[in-house]
Amino acid sequence: MERAPNRPLANALYAALGLLAFFSLWEWIGKAGIVGPTLPAPTDVAKALMDPDTLPLLGSSCMYTLASAAKGLLFGASLATLLAVVIHLLPPLRPGLDRLAVLVNTTPPIAIGPILIVVFSRSQTPAVLAGIQVFFLFYVAASSGLAAASPALGRVMIGFGASPWKRLCYLDLPASLPHLASGLKAAVAASFLGAILGEWFGAPHGLGLVILNAMQNFQVQLMWAAVVVAAAMSLTAFLLAAGIEKIVLQRFGK
Amino acid sequence: MTSAGIEIQGLTKRFTHRRGAVVEAIRHIDLTVAPGEFLAIVGPSGCGKSTLLHLVAGLEQPSGGAVRIGGEPPRELVRKHRLGVAFQDPALLPWLSVQSNLGLPFKLAAMPVDREKVTALIKLVGLKGFEHARPSQLSGGMRQRAAIARSLCLDPDVLLLDEPFGALDAVTRRRLNIELERIWRDRPITTLLVTHSVEEALFLSDRTIVMERPGAIAQVVQVPFLRPRTPDVLRLEEFHRLTDQITLWLEH
After folding, report:
1. For residue B88, with 0-12 CB atoms within 10 Å meaning exposed, 13-18 middle and 19 or more buried, which class applies?
2. B108 and A161: CB-CB below 8 Å?
C-alpha cells in the first residue's frame, strides 16, 4: 500500500474535513428522519450523553464494563502467557494445548455464555468472557514471541551454558515482548467485546446492559449514547496499547 | 585457571535429511590441540569446518567418535561455563548496552558481574566510550569486537571463533586480526578459529589445518612466525609462500 505523503498539517486538515462532512451528512439524515427514528442526529445523541439524568448512569456503567474488561484482560493474558511459557519449557505439551486454544477460540462466545452463567455467575460472566477472548490472542502472541529469538542468539546461550530457565529470562522473554505488546493491542478491543457481550447475559450493571435495556424500551438516544461511550472507551484503550507497543518496540525490537 | 587441551578421536557426524538422504559432514577426524594452542581451520565452504566447531562446542552430538576437552565431554565444559564462543553473527542482545551484554556470561553462570573485568575488556577491544551504546548504534566491526570481548569475560579454558570477522571489510578485518593477536598474546587460551581467510589463519594461528570435502583434514601447516606478531609478518616472503601454498590446496 502507498503511504500517504508525509504532510501532517494537510493530512490533519483532510481528516477534519472528512469527519465534518460525515457528521454533517449524519446530522442532516437524523434531523430529517430519512431512515426513521432509530438513527438520531449526532447532536441529539450528544444531548442524551450530557443529560444530567443519564450521565451518572453512563459513567458508572462505563466503569463497571471497564473493570470487567480489565479483569478479563489481566487474567486471560496472564494465563495465556503462563501456559505459553510452560509449553516453551515442556515442548511435548504443545500439540495438545495448541488444539485446546484453537477449540476455545472457535467456540462462539455467544454459545458458551449460558454455560458461564451456570458455572460462574451473572456478574462474573462479562469478565470471564472477556478473558476467553483475550486468552487466544495472547496465547498466539506469547507462543510465537517466545520462539522469535534468532538461532544465532540461541547458539550463544547454549555456548555460555545457559540453563533453560536462564535462557528464558535473559533471551526468550525479552525477545517476546514486542509480540506480547502487539497481542495487547489486539486484545484490548477483544476484552471490551467479551465484557459487553457478557453483560447481555444478564449482568447487574454495565454498558451492555444499558444498551440492551435502552433497545428494549426504545430509548434510541440513550442506546446510541451508550454505544458512543463504549466506542470511546475501547478506542482510548487501543491508543494506550498502541503507545505501549511503540515504546516496547523501541526498547526490545530489532 | 589454565587452558584445556582438546582431543578429537575418530569424530564423525552425519546429518539425515527429511527424504532419508544421509550427508556426511565430518568423516573420521583425529586431531589434538595442545593447551594454549591457537589452531586455525580453513577449507572450502561445505567442508564441515563449522560443524567441527559446533561439535567441539557441544551444539551438535557426534554420530561416531568423541570430543574431549581437558578429558571431559564438551557438555561438561559448557556446564561449568568454561567455554567462550563468538560466531559470524555477533549475536549481542539488542535490548542491552555493550556493558550489559558483557555482563551476560556472568549472569548465565550465576556469578556476580565483575565490573572491573568488563571495563577492562571493553578497553581491550577498543570500545571505551561505547559502554552504554546499544548494539544497533554500533558499526559491524564494533559489534564483532564486543562479541569477542564477551567470549573472554569468564576467562574461558577454550575459545571457539567461527568466522568472527567474516562479514567485515578487508581493512577492518585486518585491524581486528591485529587486535585479536594482541589480546590472545596477553592470555593464550586454547583457540579454534574457523575462517575463510588464509592470511587471517596464518597471522593468528600456531597451526593451520586445511579441510577438504567431505569433512576431512587434508593438510596440517605449522606456522613458523614468532610472537609477538606485528603487521610486518604479513610482508614476509615465508608468509606469502605459505599463503600461496594453502590457497593452492584450497583450489584443488
Report:
1. buried
2. yes
SS (H, E, C) A57-82: HHHHHHHHHHHHHHHHHHHHHHHHHH
- Summarize pLDDT for B36-46 with one digit per residue, the tens: 999 999 999 88
User: Do residue A155 and residue B109 have CB atoms under 8 angstroms apart?
Assistant: no
Measured between CA atoms, how close is B249 to chain A, in angstroms? 31
What does the pLDDT look like over B184-218, one tens digit per residue?
Answer: 888 789 999 999 899 999 999 999 999 998 889 99
Q: Considering only CB atoms, which chain B residues are within 8 Å of A155?
A: 57, 59, 85, 87, 91
The phi and psi torsions of B207 (rounded to 5 degrees) equal -145, 140
Chain A residues touching residue B79 (CB < 8 angstroms): 161
| Cell numbers given for A180 | 506480547
> What is the DSSP annotation of chain A?
-PPPPS-HHHHHHHHHHHHHHHHHHHHHHHHHTTT-TTS--HHHHHHHHH-TTTHHHHHHHHHHHHHHHHHHHHHHHHHHHHHHHHHHHSGGGHHHHHHHHHHHHHS-HHHHHHHHHHHS-TTTHHHHHHHHHHHHHHHHHHHHHHT-S-HHHHHHHHHTT--HHHHIIIIIHHHHHHHHHHHHHHHHHHHHHHHHHHHHTT-SSSHHHHHHHHHHTT-HHHHHHHHHHHHHHHHHHHHHHHHHHHHHHHHH--
Which residues of A, range 158-187, sit inside 8 Å of B by Cβ? 158-163, 166, 170-171, 174
pLDDT above 60 for A66: yes
ipTM: 0.85
Judge whether A254 is closer than 8 Å to chain B, CB to CB.
Answer: yes
Inter-axis angle of helices A125-146 and A94-106, nearest 10:
140
Query: Residue A133 to residues A3, A44, B106: CA-CA distances in angstroms?
Result: 32, 34, 41
